[in-house]
Each structure stands twice: as C-alpha cells, then as structure tokens.
Amino acid sequence: MGRATTPPAIEVSDVTFSYGETTIIDRISFQVEEGEFLSLIGPSGCGKSTLLAMMDGVLKPDSGTVLVEGRTPSTGEGSRATVFQGFALMPWKTVLDNVALGLRYKRPDLSRTERADIAMEYLEKVGLASSARRYPRHLSGGMQQRVGLARAFAVQPRLLLMDEPFGALDAQNAEVLRDEVQALVEQEGRSIILVTHNLDEALQLSSRVLLMSAGPSTIRDDVRVELPSRDSPHYAARYDEYRTRLWSHLRDEVETTRARERNAA
C-alpha cells in the first residue's frame, strides 16, 4: 500500500468570484504547502481580501474550489486564526481577556485558568505582559495590534491569515511588528497568508509572493523568495532583483487600474 500523502495547507482550484455583475477573481489556481509563508499583493480592488475571506470560510467561490487541509473551510474552525488591519479588540475587556477570548472559542476544552496562562505566555512573547490588566483604550495603536497578534498566535493555529495587519500603523511601529511576527513564526512554525500592499513587507517576511493582476484578477507572477542572510554581502543585490521584478509587474497593474478608473469617470 502507498503511503498517505498530506494535502496542501491550501488548494485554490479554478476559482471565480463576482460581486453582482462584476467579476473580481477569474479562474485563479494555486497551492500553499504546509509551513509556507505566502504574501498576496496587487492593486487595490483586485480581490486579495476576498480571496483571504474564502480561505477563512466567510465567502464561497462562484465556481471552483477552495480547500484548507483538504476540506472546504467553514467559519470558526480552530485550525485557523485571522489578524485584521483593524485591531478588533473588545474595549470592555482587559488585554489579557482579549487574548484569552480566542482560546475560549477555539479551545473550549481548556479551563479559564489554562486560557489565562496561555494568554499571558503570548503577551510575554509580544512584550506586553506588563499591560495584561489594562484596557485597549490605554494602549497605542501599535500595542493594540500586538495584542491582536498575541490573540491569533495563542490559539496555535495551523493556518494564520493576516489582512493588512500593519496598514494602520506608523512606519516605526509597523517595522517593530514585522520583526515580532517574524520571530513568532520562527518560534512556532505554521502556514501563513499575508495580504499586503507593501512590496518590501512581502519580501522581508515571505518565502513566496503571488502578484495578482488588476480585476478580473488572475495570477500575474509567482515568485519564490530565497534571500541570503541580511549580513551577507549578496543580500542587497538579490533583494533588489526580486523587488525590481515584482515592482515592474505591480506598476503595470496599478496603471491598468488607474486607466480604468479614469475611463469610468
């Protein structure tokens, strides 16, 4: 008998999606392997967040299939967690309770004490243990987003979906959070999908980048990112090669989107 094969973390097959009469995604196909960090980039309105919502079971494709670990996803499954651009914190709950809230729904087998212990562990990992008893209104935007990251990582998902998680932050806080995400990924290991408009963010964090075209969206480019360590004398040149390639294609798609908007005005 042959050995059982593990299905891809995500398998998107010939997916089409429309809002009303407008086709947003047009027969897109790709796979994400277990442990891969994939970034989706593309012009505004190309369907990046829509595709992420289908992976999370919130939306269904008009045609084609989206499979997560070999199954059609449904909302609320414990194997996944999502980090949004908005912090999505409960203002009436403490920082600790906000982190523990994800565990309450994803890990109902745990006691309240166990949930609190795990929540505190992940607050320590993002440097916010001393703020555990504070409320979100007392935290900066960067600190609130770190709480959101702690909540997502605390449930120990096999798949982490991130939708522009740094988009609302200033440059300094975004840089700090990118470093913290990278550290958490290295510690934990999991499959991650990041939706971003930031090309440098995609290259710094990802092992692979998918560039989506202007709508109706297809896959314009599929780039595996294999950079040497940052202290290597070859890092800057290799990084520039990837960035030039991706930016050349992305610029074309942005210009296409702008031209359509001008014609529609």
UniProtKB/TrEMBL annotation:
InterPro entries: AAA+_ATPase, ABC_transporter-like_ATP-bd, ABC_transporter-like_CS, ABC_transporter_ATP-bind, P-loop_NTPase. SUPFAM superfamilies: P-loop containing nucleoside triphosphate hydrolases. PROSITE patterns: ABC_TRANSPORTER_1, ABC_TRANSPORTER_2. Keywords: ATP-binding, Nucleotide-binding, Transport. It holds the Pfam family ABC_tran. Residues 10-239 form the ABC transporter domain. One of its GO terms (molecular function) is ATP hydrolysis activity. The keyword Nucleotide-binding applies. CDD domains: ABC_NrtD_SsuB_transporters. This is ABC transporter ATP-binding protein.
